[in-house]
Structures are given as C-alpha cells and as structure tokens.
Design brief:
Belongs to the ADIPOR family. The protein is mainly α and 352 residues long. It contains 14 helices and no strands. Helices cover 64% and strands 0% of the residues. α8 packs antiparallel against α9. The longest helix has 30 residues, at 175-204. Residues 1-20 and 32-51 have low confidence and may be disordered. The structure holds zinc ion (ZN). Zinc ion (ZN) is lined by residues 114, 164, 168, 314, 318.
Length: 352
C-alpha cells in the first residue's frame, strides 16, 4: 500500500514514461541491488506501460522518487555521466526527475561543491548588481549610460553563475538534459568574459571612442563565435576538455591587445596606477590558473579518489572564477571613481 502511494506521488512529481529510454541506458547499468520483491510487484501494478523495465530498474526508480538513492562509484556510471575518471566514488546515479536533482543540492556527492560555489557566487553578484543599480545618480557622470555598462557586466556574471549551478544540479537527470545545460553553461562563460570587457573598455578608453568601439566589436564577435562552438555536441565531451579551456582562454586573452595599447600610450606607471592593471593582471592570473587546473585535472590526477567530494579541480576553478570576477569588479569600480574624479573631462594630457 505504501509502495502504491509512493509510486502515485512519483507520477504527480512529473516523472513520466518518456524517461524510459534514459532509464534503460542509465539506471539499468546500476542494477546492483537485488530488487525488493514487494515493491516491484506494487510498481508493476500502478505503473501502466512500465512493464518493459526490468524489476531492478523499477526498484531504483522507486529509490530516486523517495530520495533514498545512494552515491555510486565511477565504474558503474553510464557513459554520458562519465566525465572525470580521477573521481572514483561519490557520484549521483542518473535521476530522471528534476525534483530529485534539486533535492540533491542538499546531499553530499561529487557535484555538491560545484553547485554551491556558483550558487553562492550567483547570490553575491545578484546583490552587488542590485546595489550598483540602486546607487544614487550623483555618483555617476552619465548615470544611465554607466549603469547600462555595469549592468552588462552583472548580467554576464549572473547568467554565467546561474547557468553553471543549474547545469551541475541537473547534470545527472538524463543525457539530453545534461547536454542542453552544458551548452548553456559554456555559453555563460563566454557571456561573463564579454560582459567583463564592457565596463573595462568603457572607462579605460573613455576619451577614445573609436578604439573602444573596435575592441568592443572584436570581443563581441569572438564571444559569439565561442557560443556557436559551444553548441557543437562533442564540445562537452571529456576528450575536448583542453579545447574548451583553450577557447575561453583565447577569448579572455584577447584583452592583451587593448592592455598593450593602453600601456604603450600612457606608460607603465599610469597603466598600473590609474589604469588598475595590477588588479586586471591578478584577475587574469586567477582565470588562467583556474583554466589550467581544470584542463589538467589537478590535484585529483595525482591522488585519484582523494578529492572525490572536496577540493577537486572543478571546484577550485569555480572558486577562482568567482574571485576573479570580484577582483574585476573592484578594478572597474576604481576606474569609474577615477573618471568621476576628473568629471569626465578629456584633455590633451588626460588618459587616452
Ligand atoms: Zn562548472
């Protein structure tokens, strides 16, 4: 009777029979449990059309509904969930229910750290963005324009971080959902990089609208190209880990050209003081370190199985992304204050 009730509740949660193919490829490979006879019988009675499933799969399906799933080792994961073979244990099983995926945010497994690092980062940037937008207009030279410029940065950061925590949450749902959200996740990184360029170029080239427009157009074209590349199905596969790190590193490093331009025109001292290049350099080091650790899967490659839950490369990369975005925000805020101090004046000996 209890089983019948639970199964009915599961149907109410939106778990439908179209999940059957993904269950076959996923859950059946996990059939290590002997299956619970009583529940199997009850499920067969209340799930019309589910007879094609093996008793063992039905048993696992039941466990997912009830939130009674257990973490599983890497070897038994279906191929589409196999990403990092240095994380030996603590993986979520395939769970074709969004409710179960979202509930897993509060459980300990290989994705817990990845979810929370960007969920908290998302809340941080959402608050910072709202505070910036609510700042009195007297602190800006051209309030509307400057708020739009900062808004682009916050939009990029908030979209990147929310796509990321959502992807890590529903990654174990099914192959199709995982693939769709991974594309959003990668597109989010490109949006964050593009959004970061906007206020930096706006204030650094405040008195040179032409190079500012050229650099902005270039980063938009490169960013949109990265988003298009990220729609390629194979982009998300473990084989292309280095390609991914390379695409986003290349997009970020396109900032080297305007940096050189600014430094040559204004000199090293002005670039590092009023130009805030020290902060932007720190930001770049953080992103590059994060991308490097991500691509090389350090530290888990040296100690397989020791970083399954905490301090794996992906989590370090996530923390560095949030820290780098914060450093970037600090740098552009200083640039904004400097321009405000000059009252937006562009004289012959002013910066650019
Ligand atoms: Zn991630």
């Amino acid at each position: 009777m209890a089983s019948r009730k639970a199964a009915a509740a599961g149907q109410g949660n939106g778990l439908r029979l179209e999940v059957v193919p993904s269950l076959r490829s996923g859950l059946e490979s996990l059939c290590v449990h002997p299956g619970r006879e009583g529940e199997r019988e009850a499920l067969l009675l209340v799930l019309p059309g589910a007879f094609a499933l093996t008793p063992c799969t039905l048993s696992l399906l039941f466990w997912v509904w009830e939130g009674r799933w257990r973490v599983i080792p890497y070897d038994v994961l279906p191929d589409w969930l196999k990403d990092n073979d240095y994380l030996l244990h603590g993986h979520r099983p395939p769970m074709p229910s969004f409710r179960a995926c979202f509930k897993s945010i509060f459980r300990i497994h290989t994705e817990t750290g990845n979810i929370w690092t960007h969920l908290l980062g998302f809340v941080l940037f959402l608050c910072l963005g709202i505070l910036t937008m609510l700042r009195p207009n007297m602190y800006f030279m051209a309030p509307l324009q400057e708020k739009v410029v900062f808004g682009m940065f916050f939009l990029g950061a908030v979209l990147c971080l929310s796509f990321s925590w959502l992807f890590h949450t529903v990654y174990c749902h099914s192959e199709k959902v995982s693939r769709t959200f991974s594309k959003l996740d990668y597109s989010g990184i490109a949006l964050l990089i593009m959004g970061s360029f906007v206020p930096w170029l706006y204030y650094s080239f405040y008195c040179s609208p032409q190079p500012r427009l050229i650099y902005l157009s270039i980063v938009c074209v490169l960013g949109i190209s990265a988003i298009i590349v990220a729609q390629w199905d194979r982009f998300a596969t473990p084989k292309h880990r280095q390609t991914r790190a390379g695409v986003f590193l290349g997009l970020g490093l396109s900032g080297v050209v305007p940096t050189m331009h600014f430094t040559i025109a204004e000199g090293f001292v002005k670039a590092t003081t009023v130009g805030q290049m020290g902060w932007f350099f720190l930001m770049a080091v953080m992103y590059i370190t994060g991308a490097g650790l991500y691509a090389a899967r350090i530290p888990e490659r040296f100690f397989p199985g020791k970083f399954d839950i905490w301090f794996q490369s992906h989590q370090i990369f996530h923390v560095l992304v949030v820290a780098a975005a914060f450093v970037h925000f600090y740098g552009v805020s200083n640039l904004q204050e400097f321009r405000y101090g000059l009252e937006g004046g562009c004289t012959d000996d002013s910066l650019l």
